[in-house]
Amino acid sequence: MAETTQKRTSPRGRRNLVSEVATGLRGRIEKGEFEVGDRLPSEAQLTEAYSVSRTVVREAIAALRADGLVEPRQGAGVFVLEPSIGIQRPFQILDVDKISSIIEMLELRTAVEMEAAALAATRRSPAQEEEIYEAEAEIRALAQTGEDTTEADFRLHRAIAVAANNPRFAEFLDLMGPSVIPRSALQASGAHRSPDSYISLISSEHRAIADAIAAGDADGARDAMRHHLKGSQQRYRNMLRKP
Prior knowledge:
By secondary structure, this protein is mostly helical. The protein contains eleven helices and two strands. It has helices at residues 2-8, 11-30, 43-50, 54-66, 99-123, 126-144, 150-163, 167-176, 182-188, 196-214, 218-241; strands at residues 70-73, 77-80. Strands 1-2 form a two-stranded antiparallel ribbon. A hairpin with a 3-residue loop joins strand 1 (70-73) and strand 2. Helix 5 runs parallel beside helix 10 (196-214). The longest helix has 25 residues, at 99-123.
């Protein structure tokens, strides 16, 4: 039990474990160990097989789902999907060379995630609240060492969606995947690297959202999420005006 607790308090260790589990399962699918239509081992079995927590397994499965490799089915388990070669799923058509495309995604996210944050403030469980704070801390820890924060940022927004305790919010983010994080799209194109001041600003906005949710303040959580995503929209609009 002590070892599990230590893993939970190490942001980078947690991120690496998720990556290892996702990569391992992806490899087994690609090798045909799990064929199309097969059900993956249960969450408990994967936890035992990889010696990780259930949360790590869930995040790894979410990553595979975002890649279109698996599909969770209520009450039945997680099943391997037929590879969709050359088919772009909804919300995946994001032109990273166009800031306008990123702004469009942010506008959509604002409409959805404001309500998710408000619901999370009134419905979150203690474990879900802890997950939100762990993700927020991971972003800050990675930023301080100059590492990429995209996965941690996505984890935070997804944790808030899960805490709304309406599965459709998390499904919405899973469908879009990590490309929903603007810095991910911009960095993929090799442009507009985030300065330290920008990362600090984003971290403070994330903390405000987490604190409002923890306080059970639905209106405050909604406003904090609006401020965060509307602020992001404005920052990218400012980029459009630069010569």
